[in-house]
Design goal:
Elements: H1 12-32, H2 46-56, H3 66-72, E1 85-94, H4 112-120, H5 124-134, E2 147-148, E3 157-168, E4 172-173, H6 176-185, E5 189-191, E6 201-203, H7 212-219, E7 224-231, E8 244-252, H8 258-266, E9 270-273, E10 290-300, E11 318-325, H9 332-344, H10 352-357, E12 376-382, H11 396-432, H12 440-443, H13 457-472, E13 474-479, E14 482-486, H14 501-512
Parallel strand pairs: 3-12
Antiparallel strand pairs: 1-3, 1-7, 2-3, 4-6, 5-6, 8-11, 8-12, 9-10, 10-11, 13-14
């Protein structure tokens, strides 16, 4: 078969596919300047023709092999040098239970090993950086001057978490002469930042900036949603510029004395030493444990939060701890909530808070179980309006559909989770409606006569079980539907205590060596290590 007649046996579709392939090769060569804009005629060169045949991989049907054709396409490199950058703050929400915490482990996209770790133990930040890279908004994780407002543990959610970083912008570089003319006429705002080599940049109006919220939400998993963005100054830090942080902890009121919990909670307000209400990390060598609780309250979940249960039933009436402070220690909120649960169950008096805050009398933290992670939410991070002015909608007319999409996405997740709750509730209702004959032995038990004529026979069994369990064990509530079973409850102040902070810090320092620097500096009063 000659070079000029070999295509005679090809079908029309195969010939068209071949032409499209060659045309795509020519276009890519013209863009990258790696090869001539017009492909050289290889039909007169047997060696070249053989190479083409090998690359094209014609099969028995005369069709081009899909796999090798994809491999032949050249990936175009994105030139970040053509674009200016600006620093922005991003406000976002996330459900914590699918992730191993907010913070990524090192540079999540820096190597295949890090990416493998991130895939096995996904984090919220890891997903955000993947989306940023996919949208070509950053050149790399370590080059974007990244900061976060506060860390959250595995299982903890966020409604108003904030990060800050440099991202690609639509701002255009101009000459100094053009910049001077623009500034004189006042037609636009000119920015000069070291990040852009101090070159003048025409900053776009907010409605003409890249749609950061929409871009990222299209690339993020549904559990993570960007809510708003804001342009910020070069010295802005999501962590150190934050004025206060607001947390919520949701819990059922079943078996709890809410008034006693409120009495205990009020004792947290003010500047207090919370060393007995946190988890100590000696590697950070922290010596200042004073933190400010601005206000605290325990309120019912408002009726506007739909489908939280029947308010007439104690098992389904939900409450929330509302806590606002400037900064928090590692696990501080969960430790505070754990003590409130003990007070609510009558296992401790409200005065236990005052006693544990007296670090002269209680110098080492007593051993106790932290409250569960899932009910805890970082609800908001507060900044001065002069520092951050959030943009939820760029253009009210154009972005209405985008806001509706955001609402729909979260509603779908709620529907999925609520379906599971309804199924569990239906099972519980079905179980409690089951007719169970009352045995004679149970009718004769003292104190159970009042239940003999009730239609809810299951209530008799539950009451009897609760009575017997109360005699044998203590069920300590730790939140999120979890309990810790103790045969004998030991009061907090009678429990084993950890060594004082100074001793534990010194032991770590001696063990690791004086040349090993701690992770963070001493006495950082604005430090929000990991409140959750």
């Amino acid at each position: 078969m000659t070079d000029t007649t070999k295509y005679a046996e090809w079908s029309r579709e195969s010939l068209i596919e071949r032409l499209l392939f060659l045309e795509n090769q020519r276009n890519e060569a013209a863009v990258t300047n790696d090869t001539p804009a017009v492909e050289t005629d290889k039909t007169n060169n047997p060696a070249a023709d053989a190479t083409v045949d090998a690359d094209v991989d014609v099969d028995v049907d005369g069709k081009i092999g899909q796999k090798l054709r994809k491999q032949s396409k050249r990936e175009r490199q994105f030139d970040f040098g053509k674009f200016s950058e600006r620093k922005v703050a991003l406000k976002f929400s996330y459900f914590g239970w699918p992730y191993h915490g907010l913070a990524r482990q090192g540079n999540a996209l820096g190597s295949e090993e890090k990416m493998e770790i991130e895939s096995q133990f996904p984090t919220v930040e890891g997903e955000i950086f993947k989306a940023l890279a996919k949208c070509k908004l950053i050149t790399g994780e370590s080059e974007c001057d990244y900061s976060r407002c506060g860390r959250t543990d595995r299982g903890v959610s966020g409604f108003g978490q904030v990060i800050a970083l440099y991202v690609r912008s639509t701002g255009k570089y101009v000459s100094e002469e053009e910049a001077a003319e623009i500034e004189e006429n006042g037609t636009a705002e000119i920015g000069r930042e070291e990040r852009n080599g101090n070159r003048p940049v025409v900053l776009p109006p907010n409605e003409r900036e890249l749609p950061y919220v929409n871009m990222l939400n299209k690339s993020l998993p549904p559990e993570i949603r960007i809510l708003a963005w804001a342009p910020v100054k070069a010295d802005f830090s999501a962590r150190f510029s934050c004025k206060s942080r607001f947390y919520r902890y949701f819990f059922s009121g079943d078996g709890l004395d809410i008034d006693a919990m409120r009495d205990a909670a009020r004792r947290y307000v003010g500047i207090r030493d919370f060393r007995n209400f946190c988890r100590l990390d000696p590697a950070k060598q922290i010596t200042n444990f004073e933190r400010t609780v601005i206000d605290i309250a325990i309120n019912p979940v408002p009726p506007k939060v739909s489908f939280v249960g029947n308010g007439q039933c104690t098992e389904s009436k939900w409450w929330q701890l509302e806590l606002r402070g400037t900064a928090f220690l590692w696990h501080q909120v969960r430790c505070m909530m754990a003590i409130l649960f003990l007070v609510g169950q009558g296992l401790e008096a409200p005065s236990i808070v005052d006693q544990m805050l007296d670090v002269q009398s209680v110098g080492g933290k007593p051993e106790y179980e932290m409250a569960a992670d899932t009910p805890l939410v970082l609800a908001d991070c507060v900044f001065d309006r002069a520092d951050v002015d959030w943009i939820y909608v760029r253009n009210p007319g154009q972005d209405a559909a985008n806001m509706a999409t955001l609402d729909r996405d979260i509603l779908r997740q709620w529907s999925h989770l609520n379906t599971q709750a309804i199924i569990a509730g239906a099972l519980l209702q079905n179980l409690r409606n089951t007719v169970i004959p009352v045995p004679e032995s149970l009718k004769s038990v003292e104190g159970m006569e009042m239940l003999e004529d009730q239609e809810d026979r299951w209530a008799i069994c539950r009451a009897r079980y609760a009575q017997s369990e109360k005699q044998r064990v203590n069920h300590v509530i730790v939140g999120g539907g979890a309990i810790k079973v103790l045969r004998n409850y030991v009061p907090i102040l009678d429990r084993k205590r950890a060594d004082p902070v100074a001793m534990r810090n010194q032991a770590w320092f001696e063990r690791k060596g004086q040349n090993k620097r701690p992770k963070l500096g001493h006495d950082s009063s604005t430090e929000d290590n990991n409140a959750l």
